[in-house]
Amino acid sequence: MSTPLDPAYGLLARARDDLFVVSNLAQEPDAPGWVIGFHTEQAVEKALKAVLTAACIAYPRTHNLVMLVELLRRAQRTLPPDANDFSRLIPYGVVLRYDDLPCEAPPNVPPEWFIAVAQNTLAWAQTQISTKN
Fold first, then answer.
1. Could you count the other beta carbons within 10 Å of the beta carbon of residue 104?
2. What CATH number is given to the structural domain containing 95?
3. 28, 91, 98, 122: which is deepest, by most CB within 10 A?
C-alpha cells in the first residue's frame, strides 16, 4: 500500500545510491574528482527534493541547489547543516549536463568534504521526512 510520502522516500533512496558511489569512489586514489563531485551534487539535490516533496513544497525542474535551499528558507523549514556550502557543488551538477563543457576543471575539493556533505544532508533529510510520519 502506498503512502503520500512514497515519492519522498524514493528520492531519498536514490540519494543514498549516490552517496554509495561517492563513499566508494572516494577511497580510490585515481578516481576522477569531478565524478565524485557529480554524485555528491546528485545526492544533495535528491535529498533536498525529497524534503521539499514531503513538505508539499512545489519546486521547478532544476539542478540549482541554492534555489532549492531558498525554497526551504522561504517556507521557514530547517535547512541542511551544509546549506551555505552547496554553491561549491553547482559546477559538478552542471558540467555533465551540457555539450559545451567549460575550459577549466571544477575546483579541486578533498574527497572527505564530498562524503561529509552528502552524509550530513542525507541524515538531515531523513530526519525531516521521518518527522512527517
1. 7
2. 1.20.120.330
3. 122
